[in-house]
Amino acid sequence: MRNFKAGQYINQGTHKSFQPDKINRKWNVGNMELINLLSQADRQLGRLDMYSEYIPNIDLFISMHVLKEASQSNKIEGTKTNIEEALLDKEDVNEEKRDDWEEVQNYILALNTAITTLEKLPFSSRLIKETHQILLKGVRGKHKLPGEFRNSQNWIGGASINDATFVPPSHTTVNEYMGDLEKFAHNDEHNFPDLLKIALIHYQFETIHPFLDGNGRAGRLIITLYLVEKGLLKKPVLYLSDFFERNRTLYYDNLTRVREKNDLTQWCKFFLVGVIETAQNSIKTFDSILKLQKEVDSKLQKLGVRSNNAQTIINYLFQRPILNAQKAKELTNLSFPTVYKLIDEMEELCIIEEITGAKRGKFYLFKEYIKLFK
Questions:
Q1: I want to staple 52 with a disulfide (CB 3.0 to 4.6 A). Which of 84, 172, 235, 297 is the partner?
Q2: Do 275 and 226 contact (CB within 8 A), yes or no?
Q3: How far is it, in rounded angstroms, from Cα 339 to Cα 74?
């Protein structure tokens, strides 16, 4: 990567756009610090992948990881929806927050749909477009060509293109660049580690900025898609948005540093540190979940004959850790008086906690579970 050239600025008359060099070519890694980080990242990713095989009900836990990923990814874009709000149904969300809520729900649907689509459609421009269409459906940006590469110039930062922080390549070259990116993703001719490959793909995608809106969300989402398609993960259990959000300034600075100083190595180091830290944190979360499961199972034994119905509620809460009496009734087929009694007992055992403080329309949170994802 020592002789890497990011690209050049091209005069477009009223502005200069950055035209990146294409990436589908042979790459060499000579930096020992980078190789060491790559080794650590591979090891931690392997550990995390092993957990996803042996943890029971892994899909229940993935749904919460996806929810956290959606909340954090959209937070980077300025969307202010926390996990608790994202868990609510639309009609239970304050009207002024519904747009933000919709964006988070779209992210969850986009990721889940894309993971399923990977079974029949490879990582490609087509898959990215289909995913982007779901991301922008019915939310801010819905009029900015959802599912289509842009047909006009865009820019990042600044009130106009004249004072923009960054101007991506001309729209006339987007298809060409995305075709090159897709070829690179599937190029088996030149041996290049997959984690460095997706680090480079993410950088290039954000530099191309192929859509009029939603590039950040789409760019973070394709990281997980690539790792699953390449078999580095059997299940989608690694999400870097939380790391990028906590290190937001570094994230943008390192992307900019590639373009301005041709320093791809520093970006790759940052990316690999994110993989290592995120994988380690995810493993800790899985361990904590298993510990919490045992603690809750122990508490449920105190409910005697009602423990089976309580377990049904708990199974639901591990997937969606908020409910009301109506949902509990649907899950257990009990009468409302019996449901309320069961909920009271689960509250007394500190398994769930009422969060509205209202006399009607109460919601109960599986608080200890949600804490594990914060």
A1: 235
A2: no
A3: 36
Average pLDDT over residues 186-201: 95
Report d(CA 97, CA 71) in Å as an integer. 13
Q: In terms of domains, do 272 and 310 share one?
A: no
Q: How many domains does the chain have?
A: 2
Confirm whether 8 is domain-assigned: no
Identity of residue 280 = Q
Structural domain for 133, as ranges: 31-285
User: Do 220 and 277 lie in a common domain?
Assistant: yes
Residues 196 and 314 in one domain: no
What does the alpha-carbon distance between residue 23 and residue 170 come to, in Å, rounded to a whole number?
A: 17
Residue 96 half-sphere exposure toward CB, CA atoms < 13 A: 1
Q: Identify whether the C-beta of residue 80 lies closer than 8 Å to the C-beta of residue 100.
A: yes
Contact status, residue 370 vs residue 82, Cβ threshold 8 Å: no
Q: Which of 285, 310, 334 is the last residue of a domain?
A: 285
Among the ranges given (113-122, 139-148, 217-226), the one the predictor scored with the smallest mean pLDDT: 139-148
Domain presence at residue 304: yes
Which of 233, 264, 285 is the last residue in one of the domains? 285
8 A C-beta contact, residue 230 and residue 214: no
Q: Which residues are bridge partners to 294 per DSSP? A: none
Q: Return the percentage of the chain with pLDDT > 70, whole number.
A: 99
At 2, which helix (H) or strand (E)? Answer: none
Residue 25 lies inside a defined structural domain of this protein: no
Residue written as token pair 């009130």: 159
Residues 254 and 362 placed together within one structural domain of the fold: no
Considering the domain boundaries, does residue 26 fall inside one? no
Over residues 338-349, the mean pLDDT reads 96
Nearest Cα to Cα of residue 36 among 196, 223, 248: 196
Indicate whether 181 pLDDT > 70.
yes
- Say how far apart CA 101 and CA 103 lie, in whole Å: 5
Q: What's residue 79's pLDDT?
A: 66
pLDDT in tens, 49-98: 998 887 767 776 677 777 777 778 777 777 677 787 878 888 888 888 88
Is residue 211 within 8 A of residue 219, CB to CB? The reply is no
CA quadruple 357, 363, 366, 367: dihedral, nearest 10: -30
Determine contact, residues 222/124, Cβ cutoff 8 Å. Answer: no
